[in-house]
């Protein structure tokens, strides 16, 4: 088997997913270590410009255009990958661990009976083995696992765990013909739905004070609002709070909500699950308040207060106004 | 249009606990854990029961693991599942999602299934892969991170959640598999009489199928996560911490006074 790496790019509405650049960066490093070639498969229709943007990373881009691939479907993408595998034998196929990536990767591994490892925060080769680092149990345990196979291994890489690839010379777009039998695409894309609630744009805020399960009761939200006002900010939330309708969906920070880059981010009683951290880790100054000193939020915070947010915020407000 | 629904449920160690690594370094210590149903699976179960209530049909709750897993299956029976099946599998760690999915898929094939549901991810292993793997292995179309399900003329209309708050809507013919997202519905509480009844209901225990894996899998070792960076931690009394917090906000110019 070759040491080649195949990456499946992700795009939506004419834009490449930022996580694709991270996977390319990892793929390049792994290919360099294994003496293989990294190729990026771009599936779609009328996406030549995106292929050229990817080629600027110094990689070979296999551009597969077909009307059946105009929108992502698991079925369509599995057929496209299957087509590419007829003429190539990569050792590893990688995608980002995004809603699309973890839809595609398991479906593909199941349909083609391939080994699979997902949500990796680290991937390396050790001889014939693939060694993968994963996070378990609310990020509290790290596991190193290994997979050995004579078949292609399918993997997904958690967004934010690798630095995005920077431009490099030598890239090329290779238009590639894959015949896709549209009758085998069982599911049909219908439409994209956008949130309709009119609300503040969290992404435009300089200061965000976000509340998590640690605020305990909806009745404690006014405290968060008062504090946000005192520091010239707006109120955000972690997923559990918007799931419980304490705050509208538009206020949710994280992978399935908004990605924000404020100057100040105050995380109030938020444990720091990957899904939340992905949306706020690049804030200028991150202050975390949590009673649990082992909470993963303290890994991304710059300053951490091991305290009950319901006590610390009133005391701090008193300091600021008193 | 009655639906035969199989919902896959996982029992996990309560992830809010602190964990210690077992002496051999290959698993967590399991002697003092308490277990619960995986968070996302509660939504999958609720969705299964709601679809049955709306369209008629039957819900089979399927799980895999040692005897303690029966607790999760009884909970499912109390909340409206009609039948519970446990694949007797003693490897409590289930670190390899490929093994788990192949065992579940082998049983799904033997059960009538118009619709197979799983949670979007487990909070212990976090692979987000069991559902998709089962779909691929059994040969079902599937969609992930589903927040809404409607059925009309044996065609599902499902909304799937993307990053950034967008939803992608698909039409998918039955039979199909969906992985259900947190917040897709409001899981019900089981009424007491149902809990009592579920305690007496049989749980069908079946032997794991023999599956062949196209790979060799191993756990090299577990460790506490290596922090990439760590916050400068402020401790002390609430008053002291508040003083330091206020000072920080002033120094960085977020408050004027």
Tell me about this structure.
The complex is a heterodimer of chains A (322) and B (257). Helices cover 26% and strands 29% of the residues of chain A. Chain A is of the alpha/beta class. Chain A has two domains: 5-184, Rossmann fold (3-Layer(aba) Sandwich); 202-321, Rossmann fold (3-Layer(aba) Sandwich). The mean pLDDT of chain A is 93. Chain B has 257 residues and is of the alpha/beta class. In chain B, 28% of the residues lie in helices and 30% in strands. Chain B has six helices and 13 strands. The longest helix of chain B is centred in the N-terminal third of the chain and has 17 residues, at 39-55. The chains are: A alpha/beta (322), B alpha/beta (257). Chains A and B meet through α3, α4, β7, β8 and β9 of A and α3, α4, β7, β8 and β9 of B.
Per DSSP, what share of the residues of chain A sits in E-state strands of 2 or more residues?
25-35%
Can you tell me the CATH class of chain B? Answer: Alpha Beta
Which fold name corresponds to the CATH topology of chain B?
Rossmann fold
Q: Let me know the average pLDDT of chain A.
A: 93
Structural class of chain A: alpha/beta
| Biggest sheet strand line-up of chain B | 9-8-7-10-6-1-4-5-11
CATH topology of the largest domain in chain A: Rossmann fold
Provide the CATH superfamily of the largest domain in chain A: HUPs
Mean pLDDT of chain B: 93
Going by CATH, the architecture of the largest domain in chain A would be: 3-Layer(aba) Sandwich
Architecture per CATH nomenclature, i.e. the level-2 architecture of chain B = 3-Layer(aba) Sandwich
Please state the overall shape of chain B, judged from the principal axes of the Cα atoms: globular
């Amino acid at each position: 088997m070759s040491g080649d790496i195949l990456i499946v790019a992700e795009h939506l509405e004419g834009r490449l997913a930022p996580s694709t650049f991270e996977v390319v960066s990892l793929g390049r490093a792994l290919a360099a270590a294994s003496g293989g070639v990294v190729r990026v498969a771009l599936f779609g229709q009328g996406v030549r410009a995106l292929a050229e943007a990817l080629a600027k990373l110094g990689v070979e881009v296999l551009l597969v255009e077909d009307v059946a691939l105009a929108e992502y479907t698991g079925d369509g993408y599995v057929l496209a990958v299957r087509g590419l595998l007829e003429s190539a034998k990569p050792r590893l196929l990688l995608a980002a661990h995004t809603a699309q990536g973890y839809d595609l990767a398991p479906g593909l591994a199941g349909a083609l009976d391939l080994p699979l490892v997902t949500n990796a925060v680290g991937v390396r080769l050790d001889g014939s083995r693939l060694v993968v680092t994963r996070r378990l149990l609310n990020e509290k345990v790290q596991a190193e696992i290994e997979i050995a196979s004579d078949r292609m291994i399918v993997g997904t890489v958690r967004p934010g765990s690798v630095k995005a690839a920077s431009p490099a010379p030598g890239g090329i777009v290779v238009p590639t013909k894959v015949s896709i039998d549209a009758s085998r695409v069982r599911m049909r894309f219908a439409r994209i739905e956008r949130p309709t609630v009119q609300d503040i744009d969290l992404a435009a805020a300089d200061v965000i004070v976000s509340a998590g399960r640690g605020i305990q009761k909806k009745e404690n939200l006014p405290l968060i609002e008062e504090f946000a006002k005192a520091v010239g900010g707006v109120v955000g939330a972690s997923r559990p709070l918007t799931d419980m309708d304490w705050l509208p969906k538009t206020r949710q920070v994280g992978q399935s909500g908004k990605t924000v880059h404020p100057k100040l981010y105050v995380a109030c009683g938020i444990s720091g699950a990957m899904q939340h951290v992905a949306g706020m880790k690049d804030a200028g100054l991150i202050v975390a308040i949590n009673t649990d000193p082992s909470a993963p939020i303290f890994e991304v915070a710059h300053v951490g207060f091991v305290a009950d947010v319901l006590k610390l915020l009133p005391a701090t407000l008193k300091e600021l106004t008193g | 249009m009655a639906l035969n629904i199989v919902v896959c449920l996982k029992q996990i160690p309560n992830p809010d606990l602190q964990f210690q690594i077992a002496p051999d370094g290959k698993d967590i210590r399991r002697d003092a854990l308490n277990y619960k149903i995986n968070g996302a699976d509660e939504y999958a179960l609720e969705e299964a029961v709601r679809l049955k209530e709306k369209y008629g049909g039957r819900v089979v709750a399927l799980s895999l693991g040692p005897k303690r897993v029966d607790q999760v299956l009884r909970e499912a029976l109390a909340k409206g599942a009609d039948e519970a099946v446990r694949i007797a599998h003693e490897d409590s760690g289930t670190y390899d999602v490929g093994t788990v999915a192949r065992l579940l898929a082998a049983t799904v094939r033997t059960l009538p299934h118009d619709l197979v549901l799983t949670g979007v991810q487990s909070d212990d292993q976090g692979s987000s892969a069991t559902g998709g793997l089962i779909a691929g292995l059994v040969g079902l179309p599937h969609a992930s991170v589903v927040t809404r399900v409607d059925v009309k003329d044996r065609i599902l209309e499902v909304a799937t959640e993307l990053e950034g708050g967008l939803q992608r809507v698909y039409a998918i013919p039955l039979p199909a598999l969906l992985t259900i997202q947190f917040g897709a519905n409001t899981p019900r509480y089981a009424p007491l009489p149902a809990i009592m009844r579920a305690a007496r209901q049989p749980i069908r225990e079946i032997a794991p199928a023999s599956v062949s894996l196209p790979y060799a899998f191993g756990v090299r070792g577990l460790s506490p996560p290596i922090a990439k960076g760590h916050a400068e931690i402020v401790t002390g009394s609430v008053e002291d911490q508040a003083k330091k917090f206020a000072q920080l906000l002033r120094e960085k110019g977020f408050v004027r006074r």
